């Protein structure tokens, strides 16, 4: 690619894009029923499954045995088999909202998003106040790229619980991916108000501001993120992009270097290869061929997992399964 050609694209089009946060913010998982505290791993799980199968053989309508067998199967990653068990629970009791919900979660984990939506709808029909079902339905719709419907689900979450950080965060992402950058700012600001350590939301706000062409306030947002977490590579990377957009190439290069320093020993992350790629573009613009060649070599040696800004929600945890 001849970066200096007059026919080439603008620097904004040439660079790898700005990066929203990809850090899961669903660690505070809500369970409406107590967890299986005594559930051990490996051989004990198998023995538990065997015990439930014996109980089911004695009484094929033993709902609790089907349900607990499903939980353990999902726990060990046997999602298809878990779904089969939840379907048996639903056959015995079609109004069992926990089984519908958990079936939806397991379908989601298998990337069967539309089927998952249908299960969450069953839960919502019986309990429209279930923030977990609204939330996970929104995630499934997001992955179907139905961003408007996803945003409506997340709006239901924030209406039911105005302090639900997850709801505001995912609502902001849905609006962002819909191209509603200005509306997404309101959501990211809400997360900043609620979260005690919102460096990633400051980053996301900066990305939305940059998309609106407000580079001054975007830079301030990235600075806020860095102030909270000086080793947050995405904020340094995005700061570099904004400087590059403005033609401030030397400053951009220094910020990409800061991003790469934060990513030391983590060359598989997308930000690593993107930062080197953008350095390559700038070096070519500046006709610094030796440094461009070095950057290009770094790109080819990087192991990047996927394209930048690939659907982040696929990597975010669902609201957890209901357990007994």
Note the overall shape.
Answer: elongated
CATH class of the domain at 38-120: Mainly Alpha
The CATH architecture of the domain at 38-120 is Alpha Horseshoe
Give the % helix: 55-70%
- Rg, nearest Å: 23 Å
Q: Tally the helices: what do you get?
A: 16
Find the structural class using helix and strand composition.
mainly alpha
Mean pLDDT: 86
Approximately how much beta-strand content do the residues carry?
under 5%
Q: Distance between termini? A: 59 Å
User: For the record, what is the CATH homologous superfamily label of the domain at 38-120?
Assistant: Tetratricopeptide repeat domain
The total count of strands amounts to 0
Low-confidence stretches: 23-41, 304-316
- What is the chain-wise order of helices and strands? HHHHHHHHHHHHHHHH
Largest sheet: none
CATH topology of the domain at 38-120: Serine Threonine Protein Phosphatase 5, Tetratricopeptide repeat
Strand and helix map with partners:
Layout: H1 11-14, H2 43-58, H3 63-75, H4 79-92, H5 97-109, H6 113-126, H7 131-143, H8 147-160, H9 165-177, H10 181-194, H11 199-211, H12 215-228, H13 233-245, H14 249-262, H15 270-285, H16 289-301
Helix pairs in contact: 2-3, 3-4, 4-5, 5-6, 6-7, 7-8, 7-9, 8-9, 9-10, 10-11, 11-12, 11-13, 12-13, 13-14, 13-15, 14-15, 15-16
Descriptive report:
The chain has 324 residues and is an all-alpha fold. The protein has a domain of 83 residues: Serine Threonine Protein Phosphatase 5, Tetratricopeptide repeat (Alpha Horseshoe), CATH 1.25.40. It is built from 16 helices and no strands. Helix 15 packs antiparallel against helix 16. The protein is elongated and about 75 Å long. About 10% of the residues have low confidence.
């Amino acid at each position: 690619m001849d970066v200096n050609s007059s026919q080439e694209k603008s620097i904004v089009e040439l660079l790898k894009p700005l990066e929203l946060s990809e850090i899961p913010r669903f660690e505070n998982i809500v369970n409406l029923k107590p967890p299986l505290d005594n559930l051990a791993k490996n051989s004990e799980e198998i023995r538990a499954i065997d015990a439930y199968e014996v109980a089911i053989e004695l009484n094929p309508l033993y709902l609790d045995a089907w349900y607990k067998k499903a939980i353990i199967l999902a726990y060990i990653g046997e999602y298809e088999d878990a779904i089969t068990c939840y379907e048996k629970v639903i056959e015995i009791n079609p109004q069992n909202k926990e089984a519908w919900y958990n079936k939806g979660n397991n379908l989601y984990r298998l990337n069967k998003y539309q089927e998952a939506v249908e299960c969450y709808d069953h839960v919502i029909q019986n309990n429209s106040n279930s923030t977990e079902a609204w939330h996970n339905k929104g995630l499934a719709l997001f992955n179907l790229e139905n961003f408007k419907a996803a945003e409506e689900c997340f709006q239901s979450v924030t209406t039911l619980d105005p302090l639900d950080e997850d709801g505001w965060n995912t609502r902001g992402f849905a609006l962002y991916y819909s191209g509603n950058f200005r509306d997404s700012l309101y959501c990211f600001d809400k997360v900043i108000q609620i979260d005690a350590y919102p460096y990633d939301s400051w980053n996301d706000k900066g990305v939305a501001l940059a998309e609106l062409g407000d580079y001054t306030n975007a830079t301030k947002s990235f600075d806020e993120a860095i102030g909270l977490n000086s080793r947050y590579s995405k904020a340094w990377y995005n700061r570099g992009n904004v400087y590059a957009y403005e033609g401030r190439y030397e400053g951009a290069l220094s910020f990409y270097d800061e991003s790469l320093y934060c990513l030391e020993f983590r060359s598989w992350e997308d930000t690593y290869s993107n930062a080197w790629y953008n350095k390559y573009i700038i070096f070519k613009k500046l006709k610094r061929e030796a440094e461009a060649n070095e950057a290009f070599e770094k790109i080819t040696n990087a192991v990047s997992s996927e394209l930048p800004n690939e659907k982040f929600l696929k990597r975010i945890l669902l609201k957890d399964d209901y357990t007994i």
